[in-house]
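Please check both lines for our workbook:

___
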Amino acid sequence: MLHRNLIAGEWVSGHASANINPSNTNEVIGEYAHASAEDTKQAIAAAKASLASWSRSPILERHAMLKKTGDEIIARKEELGRLLAREEGKTLPEAIGEVTRAGQIFDFFAGEVLRLSGEMLPSVRPNIGVEITREPVGVVGIITPWNFPIAIPAWKIAPALAYGNTIVLKPADLVPGSAWALVDILHRAGAPAGVVNLVMGRGSIVGQTLLDSPDVNAITFTGSVGTGKRVALASVEHNRKFQLEMGGKNPFVVLDDADLSVAIEAAANSSFFSTGQRCTASSRLIVTEGIHDRFVSALSERLEGLVVDDALKAGTHIGPVVDASQLKQDADYIDIGRNEGAKLAFGGTRLERETPGFYLQPALFTEATNQMRIAREEIFGPVAAVIRVKDYDEALAVANDTTFGLSSGIATTSLKHATHFKRNSEAGMVMVNLPTAGVDFHVPFGGRKGSSYGSREQGRYAAEFYTTVKTAYTLA
C-alpha cells in the first residue's frame, strides 16, 4: 500500500520508499511517498490559508477533534504499538506505552482548549482597562526524530492545534508509518483542509523548504545538535520563533549509601532500555568508589539476563538498533572506547537472531574518565560508561562537566544529598532513585546548555511556544 502525503486536505502521491523492519530486514512495512520541495511549499500555503478560520474556530470544535483523536489512538494502542515496534525496533510493551502516551497527550490538550484564559488588569491611568490574551503564533513547522515516532509528533501537534495554529509535519524519513497513522486519525477526526499537513521525505528537501519559507512562523524541532543549529540559523534569518530539543549525555550518579537493587534497575533502564535510543538515556554512570565494584558486578549480571531479540517477541527486553547506520555508529564508539583505554566489561558484540536485523548486545565500559569521547559525545545506542569517583562532591562536578543538560539522576538514601543534587544538577529534569528516561505527559520537558533552546514542551508550559501574548487597552 502506498501511504501518501496530506496537503490541503487531499492525499497526494509521490516517489515512494520502503519502510523496513529493523527486527527483520526482509519485511517491508509499507511504501511511503516522498514530498517534493513544491509539495512542501503547497503544504505551507495551505496551512497559511486555513490559519484565519482555524485560529478563530469555536473552542468546542477544537476540543472535539483533539478528544476524538486521543480516543482513537487509545482504542487502537495494540495495533499502533505493533506498527511502531515494527518500524522503530523498540519492544512491543514499550511501543504500546508510547502510543498510550500519545493518546493521553491529545486528551490533555483537548482539555486545555476549554481552559484557555487571559488576564484583566487595571491600568495605572484612570478609566482604562487592560486585557492580556494569548493568540496563535501562526503556521508551525514540525520536524520530528525517529526514536519516538508517535509520542513526539503528538506532543508537538496537540498543543499547536489546541492553541489555534496550523501545522506542517515533517516526520523522520526513517520511521514515517506512525506519523502517517496519526495524521490519518486527525484527518478523519475532522481537521479542516489545510489545518494539518503531512510532508514525508528527506530533510535536505522537505526540511530545508520549511526552513527557507518566510510563511512558516515557528519551527519546533527535535533531533541532532548539528541539524538544530541549522534550524536556529535559518529561523533567525526569518525572525521566526524556534524551539530546539537536541542531544544529551546524561549522568546517573550512584552513591555509597544507595539501595543497590534500586540503583541497578534505574541504571539498566536508563542506559539500555529502548536500545539506549533516547535523548534522556544515561550513558554516564558516575559511581562512588565504596559501591563501585558491587555496582559493576550486579549491573553486569543484570545485563546478562536481558534478552535482545525481535521487538515483537514475548520476553524481549531490548530490540534491535534502528538501522545499519546507527549500528555502525554504536560499533565505532565501542572501538573508540577501547582505544581510549576504557575496559569493555560486558557485551558490545553484534548478535544473530532468527530473523536478520540490527541486533547489538548492550555494552558496558569501566575504567572510563569523563574526558573520553565515550563520556563526552552522544552515542545514542545501548552503550554506557562507568566513571569511578571519590565522593558526592566529585560525582556532582563530573555530572555537570558536560556541554549537555537534559536529564540527570541520582541513587541515594540520603535526603541531604538528594536535595542538594536536585538543586545543583545542571539539567532540565532531575530524577531521584528513578531512571533518567521516562517523563509524564502533563509536565514540562526540556533541558539546558546544548540540549535545548527555547521554551519547554508539554503540559501548560507548551503555551509559551505555541502562542504569542497580546496586550490591549480600552478607554472606559
Summary: Residues 92-113 form the longest helix (22 residues).
